[in-house]
C-alpha cells in the first residue's frame, strides 16, 4: 500500500537527481544511476601514502587520511556539493556519507575509529546556514560505522574568510588557532575521525588535528568527501 502511495505522489512531486537534474526513478535516491556509477572515487582508503596523506606529511602526523571523490570545478560532483552546502540539501550529505562509510569499512584501520568529529562551523555561519554539512556527512558514515558523533568538544572560535584564491601560506595564516577544545575527557586517548566536506591545501584540518593531538594518547584520521584537483 505504501509503495503504491509513494508511486502516486511521485507522479505529481517527482524527485530529481542532485547531480544532473534528471528525474529519479523508483529505487534511486539523491543520485540517478548514471551519476552514482560515475562518481569520481579516489580509492585513497585502499593504500597508504596516498595523495591526501602526502598533503599532511611533515606537517601533522595523521594516522590515515582519505577522500571519497575527486572534486573538480564544473563537474557533476561539484553540483552535488553545492546542493549540500548552499541549497539546504542535508539528505544528499547523509547519503554520500553512507556511501563513503561503505568504502571506509574495507580498511580495518578506519574501523578502529572510536569517535567521529565533524569540522565545526563558526556559530555565526551555523546560524545562517542552519546546519553543518560536515555533520551530515558524519551521520552517513555513522550509519555504517556506528560511532558517536561529537559536535561539542571541538569548537570554532574564529570566523575565517574564504579560502578561494589564497596561497598555501595565506590559507594556513587564515586558519591557524581558529579552534579550541571545550572539553578533553571525551576525546583523550581516542582514535578520532575528523570529517570535512572538501579539502584543498588541508590547512583547516591541519589546524584542528594539531589541537586534537595535544591530548594524551590521541590518534587522528581524516575523512573528506572531496579532494580538490585542478
Detailed description of the structure:
With about 230 residues, the protein is α/β, with parallel strands linked by helices. The chain contains ten helices and seven strands. The chain has helices at about 1-10, 35, 50-55, 75-85, 90-105, 110, 125-130, 135-145, 170-175, 205-210; strands at about 65-70, 115-120, 150, 155, 180, 190-200, 220-230. Strands 1-7-6-2-3 form a five-stranded parallel β-sheet, sandwiched between helices. Helix 4 crosses helix 5 and helix 5 crosses helix 8. The longest helix has 15 residues, at about 90-105. It is globular, with a radius of gyration of 18 Å. The termini are far apart. The mean pLDDT is about 90.
SSE inventory with pairings:
Layout: H1 2-12, H2 33-37, H3 51-56, E1 65-71, H4 76-86, H5 90-104, H6 108-111, E2 115-118, H7 123-129, H8 133-144, E3 148-149, E4 154-156, H9 168-175, E5 179-181, E6 191-199, H10 203-212, E7 219-228
Parallel strand pairs: 1-7, 2-3, 2-6, 6-7
Antiparallel strand pairs: 4-5
Helix pairs in contact: 4-5, 5-8
Observed structural traits:
10 helices; 7 strands
What's this model, at a glance?
With 230 residues, the chain is α/β, with parallel strands linked by helices.
Main beta sheet: 5 strands, parallel
Give the strand content: 15-25%
Roughly how many Å is the radius of gyration? 18 Å
Shape: globular
The helix content, as a percent range, equals: 25-40%
Strand and helix order:
HHHEHHHEHHEEHEEHE
Overall average pLDDT: 90
- The side-by-side strand order for the widest beta sheet comes to 1-7-6-2-3
| CA(first)-CA(last) distance | 49 Å
